[in-house]
Write a structure and sequence with these properties.
Low-confidence stretches: 1-22
Strand order of the largest sheet: 1-2-3-4
Number of domains: 1
Number of strands: 6
Shape: globular
CATH architecture: Alpha-Beta Barrel
CATH class: Alpha Beta
Bound molecules: zinc ion
Length: about 190
């Protein structure tokens, strides 16, 4: 099983609203429009009134073995509003069972692209030509669409290694709406 689970959790601690209003973002220098990665609350919300958001995603192939884990983790768990929790699967082709992909999608989970081959070494993804990226990225999108997934708009690169502008160009020109590749450390991608 090659599936990895990544979670992002924003925890809350008590800080007064007055303290937060005095703090501009050190990177974009904005209070009102800041979207930088930080532990600060959005829109000056008091921390004890800020919703806690967990983003749950999985990478790599989807098969009968890791589907047992998905069932155990996801089935029957609800958000505070009683809606089922959902996640995003960044799917690669090799070893993937598309009937399971379709089934997970029908349960409300998002399916996104993680390329066809997920090949090694990781440096291949840094140096890949635009045509190679089209083959890997758009090719995987078409495989998901052929399996009945009609709204494939997300992408994450293998090994979190992009080819820079070449990757973004391919995503932009082929109907993707977001990339979930670049890791951030202390707010700096
Ligand atoms: Zn991967």
């Amino acid at each position: 099983m090659t599936t990895k689970m990544r979670t992002t959790m924003k925890m809350t601690t008590s800080t007064t609203t007055t303290q937060m209003m005095q703090e501009d973002c050190p990177m974009c220098k904005s209070i009102e429009n800041c979207r930088c990665l930080s532990y600060k609350t959005p829109g000056r919300l008091p921390r004890n009134q800020t919703p806690k958001i967990v983003m749950l995603t999985f990478d790599d192939n989807v098969n009968g073995v890791n589907n047992m884990l998905f069932k155990e983790l996801l089935d029957g768990r609800l958000n505070p509003n009683k809606c089922p929790i959902t996640t995003t699967f960044f799917v690669s082709d090799i070893g993937t069972n598309y009937a399971i992909v379709k089934n997970l999608h029908m349960k409300g989970h998002e399916m996104a692209v993680h390329t066809i081959s997920h090949r090694t070494p990781s440096t291949w993804w840094k140096n890949a030509a635009e045509e190679e990226l089209v083959e890997e990225i758009v090719g995987m999108k078409k495989k998901l669409e052929k399996a009945g997934i009609d709204n494939v708009v997300g992408y994450r690169n293998p090994f979190l290694q992009t080819a820079g502008d070449r990757t973004f160009k391919v995503l932009y020109e082929n109907g993707f709406l977001y990339d979930s590749t670049l890791p951030a450390h202390n707010g700096k991608p």
